[in-house]
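Practice problem: predict the structure.
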Amino acid sequence: MEIVGLIPAGGQASRLGKIPCSKEVFPVIDKNGNVKVTSSNLIQYYRKAEIKNIFYIIRKGKWDIPEYFGDGSDFDLHIGYLLMNLPYGTPFTIDQAYPFINNSIVALGFPDILFQPEDAFIHLKNRLLESDSDIMLGVVPSRDYLTSDMLEFNESMELQDIIIKQNRPDLKYSWFIAMWRPSFTHFMHEFLLNFIGLNPDGLHIENQSRRELYVGDVIRSALIKKLKVGYLVFENGKYIDLGTPVSIYKNLL
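Answer:
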């Protein structure tokens, strides 16, 4: 079955303030002193895993992304571009690719996340294909529980819940990449159709307040609905978010 890599790039990059380009093509310096653009890291990770068919999902105005990456031939892969329709957050951006990916295995990374190990998608792909999971999460130790999707396990280390951006210092692991089968693609599509029918403004209600819907919300719902959510821990792995002013100017890995 074909594996397609997605790159959701519909955001406003509001945390970075006013920058002269899309954050996905913002220049950064890697650990070897080479200058490249932010999302080329994810391109590299996909390429290592032999994931050579990729979709960027962009919003109107971010034409500098296709201008920079073109059709992908310079990177020895194939890149297509889709325009985001509903501006309600990453799950809706991902779902824009539904007609093109609904019969494929999907790999998801984030263009502003730099992580180790760089071959994590290789291991995640192997684990997914060896299992009967609908979705497989790549997981690393993390102390960023206030800004991350943290995983809660039972005593047998079975995944019980996903705790999103809450004050839970007892939780130790966060997911940073994912790969899933068509069963999860269809689940997400139906979940979002139902969600937007009940919440026309696209906002999630939580603790009597409203917020953007996250990918973690969809995965959590899949877990509750008894889809098989697996995970692979990279104990020595780590990641940083290049979508903040501090990290984008300094390679912290």
